[in-house]
């Protein structure tokens, strides 16, 4: 249910079609809007119901795979439950089938970059390290690449697996009562309030990343973060704190938020027995993701930075702070757009705008 345009539904449909299942994809979006996703499934034996949902498809299915973006309150999901049809997500199935240790990364900002950095560092020593989740590939899309094996080591065939997990994906872990062996939370502030009724509800979804961990598992969070300290006070796993570091050898990695992302990645590397010397040797070769404070050019002495990955006021504030730290004496011009989500107009944007009000040379 819900093919979507971000890859999650595509990965699930492909996984089950190749496994020999009779797959029907249903999505409220039209064929035109789903053109790219449909192109990736070309040649597979899949039936489609697009632009609408049919009640009978939810009443008569053997199993429904719900795209993470589909609200749990959907009347069609309620119909399936009433008919006794089991409802799963790609993340839930992945955790059932994955044979390797999982590093899960979540947060309001920085989770993609942190997961990307962790994968680069672990890949140098663990050749079979796999990256997936909310970073462009469905977890089921990467599942066939994961080999069985014991605890990850340079010579073992097993993992590790690094997953970026959104709040939507983490909701699936409630039913499974499962959390990754190693959980990382980069930060947390209001986001997705078009999906969640309150910040508290959004934060609760994030806590699933450690909620079902065992004492032998690990939880990694930033130091001096009172909100996360409060949210994780009942965690049963071993808690590890990361602090901001400076890595001037990488453009833009010396900025505060990227330094924190790298600091979290380094704590993961330590857990996988990668020495400090090895880590330091890797830092100059690390790359960053596009659309995250990405310098795209400089014209007439003006640097142009693409931070379109920032989709909420909190993330925007962090970008402003980062730009100021890099261009201390320069004039900062922000080009922004979007729409107001619930109570952001009163709280989020007023705080966001205040970040521009303390210097006369900014607009």
From TrEMBL:
Function, as annotated: Cell wall formation. Catalyzes the addition of glutamate to the nucleotide precursor UDP-N-acetylmuramoyl-L-alanine (UMA).
Domain (Mur ligase C-terminal): residue spans on this chain: 291-355
Annotated ranges, domain Mur ligase central: 105-243
SUPFAM superfamilies registered for this protein in UniProt: MurCD N-terminal domain (SSF51984), MurD-like peptide ligases, catalytic domain (SSF53623), MurD-like peptide ligases, peptide-binding domain (SSF53244)
A single cellular component GO annotation: cytoplasm
The entry's keywords: ATP-binding, Cell cycle, Cell division, Cell shape, Cell wall biogenesis/degradation, Cytoplasm, Ligase, Nucleotide-binding, Peptidoglycan synthesis
GO biological process: cell division; cell wall organization; peptidoglycan biosynthetic process; regulation of cell shape
PANTHER family registered for this protein in UniProt: UDP-N-ACETYLMURAMOYLALANINE--D-GLUTAMATE LIGASE
Protein name: UDP-N-acetylmuramoylalanine--D-glutamate ligase
EC annotation from Swiss-Prot or TrEMBL: 6.3.2.9
Pfam families: Mur_ligase_C (PF02875), Mur_ligase_M (PF08245), MurD-like_N (PF21799)
Xref: InterPro entries: Folylpolyglutamate_synth_CS, Mur-like_cat_sf, Mur_ligase_C, Mur_ligase_C_dom_sf, Mur_ligase_cen, MurD
Catalytic activity: UDP-N-acetyl-alpha-D-muramoyl-L-alanine + D-glutamate + ATP = UDP-N-acetyl-alpha-D-muramoyl-L-alanyl-D-glutamate + ADP + phosphate + H(+)
Localisation: Cytoplasm
Pathway info: Cell wall biogenesis; peptidoglycan biosynthesis
Annotated GO MF terms: ATP binding; tetrahydrofolylpolyglutamate synthase activity; UDP-N-acetylmuramoylalanine-D-glutamate ligase activity
Keyword Ribonucleoprotein: no
Chief location: cytoplasm
């Amino acid at each position: 249910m819900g093919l979507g345009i971000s890859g999650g539904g595509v990965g699930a449909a492909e996984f089950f079609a190749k496994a020999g299942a009779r797959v029907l994809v249903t999505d409220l979006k039209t064929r035109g809007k789903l053109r790219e996703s449909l192109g990736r499934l070309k040649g597979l034996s899949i039936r489609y119901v697009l632009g609408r949902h049919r009640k009978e498809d939810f009443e008569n299915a053997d199993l429904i795979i719900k795209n993470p973006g589909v609200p749990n309150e959907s009347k069609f999901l309620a119909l399936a439950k009433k008919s006794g049809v089991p409802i799963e997500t790609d993340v839930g199935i992945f955790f059932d089938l994955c044979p390797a240790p999982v590093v899960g990364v979540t947060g309001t900002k920085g989770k993609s970059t942190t997961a990307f950095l962790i994968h680069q560092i672990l890949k140098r020593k663990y050749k079979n390290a796999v990256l997936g989740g909310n970073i462009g590939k469905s977890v089921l899309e990467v599942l066939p690449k994961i080999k069985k094996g014991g605890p990850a080591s340079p010579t073992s065939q097993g993992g590790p697996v690094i997953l970026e997990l959104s709040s939507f994906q983490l909701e699936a872990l409630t039913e499974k009562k499962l959390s990754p062996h190693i959980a990382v939370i980069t930060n947390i502030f209001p986001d997705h309030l078009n999906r969640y009724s309150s910040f508290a509800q959004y934060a609760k979804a994030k806590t699933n990343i450690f909620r079902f961990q065992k004492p032998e598992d690990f939880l990694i969070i930033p130091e001096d973060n009172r909100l996360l300290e409060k949210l994780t006070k009942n965690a049963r796993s071993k808690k590890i704190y990361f602090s901001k570091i400076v890595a001037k050898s990488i453009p833009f990695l010396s900025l505060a938020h990227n330094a924190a992302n790298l600091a979290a990645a380094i704590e993961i590397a330590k857990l996988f027995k990668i020495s400090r010397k090895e880590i330091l040797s890797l830092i100059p070769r690390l790359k960053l993701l596009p659309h995250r404070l990405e310098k795209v050019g400089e014209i007439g002495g003006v640097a142009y930075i693409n931070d379109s990955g920032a989709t909420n006021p909190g993330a925007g504030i962090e970008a402003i702070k980062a730009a100021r730290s890099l261009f201390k004496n320069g004039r900062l011009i922000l080009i922004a757009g979007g729409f107001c989500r619930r109570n952001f107009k009163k709280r989020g944007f007023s705080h966001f705008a205040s970040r521009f009000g303390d210097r006369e040379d900014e607009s």
